[in-house]
Amino acid sequence: MVRGYIIRSLFFIAVGVVLQTFGIASGATKMFTPQQIGWQTFPLKPDKTLEYKTITGKDGLSYDLKLQVFLPKGWQTEDKRPAAVFFHGGGWRGGGPDHYYPQSRYVALRGMVAISVEYRTINRFGTSPRECVKDGKSAMRWVKTHANKLGIDPERIVAGGGSAGGHIAAAMALVTEFNEAGEDTSVSCIPKALLLFNPVFDNGPDGFGYNLVKPYWQKISPIEHINDQTPPTLILLGTEDTYIPVETAKRFERQMKEKGRRCDLHIYEGAKHGWYNLWVSREDMAESLIRMDRFLSSLGYLEGEPILKLKK
Question: Which of 69, 145, 194, 230 yields a CA-CA distance of 20 to 30 A from 114?
């Protein structure tokens, strides 16, 4: 699950060097091809970096966890724009916010504020999936309480992510425990919709990460907590994903519909885990962005047509 992140990091470093002069979002006044993602008017460099939480590392030192913010053209502090908060994958062990820079820039080009979140990972901080969920909830609450400075409507914030990041987003919406001590839990961390890319739904005995969360798996496993208030959910998953079985996604979809909740499940034949990433396939990434766009449009967060054009 963590394999490929080193390659991905080197890829984004190289792109970042080329794009370092592009510090603000450009207007989405034209259609883009998959080959243009990360270049010129589709830059991957964040527009702002903000600190949302200070934690203590395994070395006993203090660290500030950061939010990488992407802003739409014409953004002003006084705006009340919808927003998307993204969480990277990496099996809770590694990865970084740059994993979701393409998705973040895309929705910014479409007029939303987007945020890619840094959270504690096992390899760097010696923590557990519990801290990942705690940080996810902290990030959402920070964004909501600072919405007036971010030009965001606090009642129109969606969350998404891939793999373990999808787990964090889903857990924010469904899991009631694992809140940071001393945090104001009267501020809801529940997003208005979920954008889940090959997400970890099930932490049970047959699910992913069970050995990491065995003592408390029922409390942290999102699929165990689906209810009649679960936000509308988009799920993208490949048939050849060796971590997340298609049947698990279908079970999630089935339970959502039994509760009267919307769940749009899209299965991609032959696709493996992480198939939608930029360093894997630009065409497939573009297709996943178009799916995300249409879902958000159907909920009223975006207007007009997607701004990517596929060859196929």
Answer: 230
